[in-house]
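Entry 0007
Protein: Thymidylate kinase
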Amino acid sequence: MACKRGALIVLEGVDKAGKTTQCKKLVQALQQEGRAVEMMRFPERTTAIGQLISAYLENKSDLEDQTVHLLFSANRWELVPLMKKKLEQGTTLIVDRYAFSGAAFTSAKPGFSLDWCKKPDEGLPKPDLVMFLQLSPAEAALRGQFGEERYENSVFQKAVQQNYEQLMKDPSVKWQVINASQSIEDVHKDIITHSLNSINTAHNLPLGALWK
Ligand code: ADP
Ligand code: FDM
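Output (structure tokens):
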């Protein structure tokens, strides 16, 4: 009998919502239960495409907005064979940002529609669950100053938040809003509950195609 597939679980949210903290805690908790699980992140800065993206985010290079948008998408597509292989082998993937960041961030720039921004990511492996870590800009500000990277300013982040709200209206994606203003432990408890449900459900379902 073929082994049961792993679940594709994504964490999204504005800067400082706690995505990286929670992805790491979730992976650790699932591993302690003896489950096959790995963490991924986008952008994945170690590939050749990822290095172009990283230089752009660090303001070391300039690219057209269209170019960088397509690079972010290409960075996901280049990892699709690996993701599919792992999922088929039964490994659950916990992913820090995905196509939703792609659409929410680029469409916060003037002249970019959400529809145009979603197009290059159409057909990517569809997450079984997308948890949106909800945190107000005021609470995010309490978690420290913005860094030096591109997009790290409150006006841009507010526009990003509004775009996420648009994306969350799409019933073809399984969204779960998480109250990210709780303590790290309480957020983790919510996240693990939803993740375990998703892992159990995904076992019996084929992997879907995003936005198709
Ligand atoms: P993101 O990946 O969403 O940008 P991080 O996980 O890097 O967010 O967290 C941003 C900062 O906020 C870190 O200093 C982290 O320790 C802190 N942090 C994360 N979650 C919480 C929480 N629930 N309450 C208070 N501080 C938090
Ligand atoms: N970002 C991330 C995008 O603009 N498009 C994307 O497709 C993705 C995955 O890159 F500002 C933005 C979001 C954030 C930056 O920062 C990546 P982190 O700190 O590595 O998550």
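Curator remark: The pocket of FDM (ligand 2) is lined by residues 42-43, 57, 72, 97, 101-102, 105, 151 (CB under 6 Å). The chain has one domain: 8-206.
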